[in-house]
């Protein structure tokens, strides 16, 4: 994710230049605009010097088609942003649920029982980190807080790591209840929070594995291409050589919306505008360890996501 100051209008172009190498949509958009410009130049010259007397397209036609296309593009952008925002809400809920679970466990686990505190602290963190790796199709065991008792080989063989760590939390709560270490209500409350972890997992998987319908996305792309192809032949007789920048501006707006929507519809990757879920997980880990009092008791060397890895800060 690119972190920037939205109030600095005077540094807009500097910011765009700095973000070029980080932003997929900017590189893709400029590539499209380059080819569109070449086409606009060719079509404008062809129309003005060879086809001007053969036909003339009324510009009202393009106004009507433009209105229809704009409605499709608004829907496309809203559908992409809704997925991005739903992903952010899911991770916000995971942050809150992790804190709530750690606060509850802090109140029911004796301060001197550091083994239990370490166990829950590690696996709350491991669940969140496994969700990051799961959504990014990665399996880096170095990101987990593991001890010898965790049997790293067993975890590595498990295909769905979030399920594995969720199971560990449920099993430990059940064992504590059987040993009368927690009451029925405490077990119910903690189980409910862990269940919400699983609900967040399901929400994120749904967003990732359910792309925008193929026909919907393809139709909009095809509509944009057809509109840009015929646009110079309708504007050349009115705008002359100004048709070239006019087509560039129209292409920038329409293709830009489509490219932005493509990037944000899966917000869990590592593109410039994706969510910094690795950094969010490190924040959860720090909060949980601090609440359970194990931040100085435990010397784990799990590899963290730094803010620099997850976000580019533009001043």
From TrEMBL:
It is found in: Cell membrane. Its main location: membrane. The chain crosses the membrane at residues 29-49, 61-79, 218-235. Keywords: Cell membrane, Ion transport, Membrane, Transmembrane, Transmembrane helix, Transport. InterPro entries: YneE/VCCN1/2-like. It comes from the Bacteria. It comes from Endozoicomonas lisbonensis. Belongs to the anion channel-forming bestrophin (TC 1.A.46) family. It is a multi-pass membrane protein. This is Membrane protein. The keyword Transport applies.
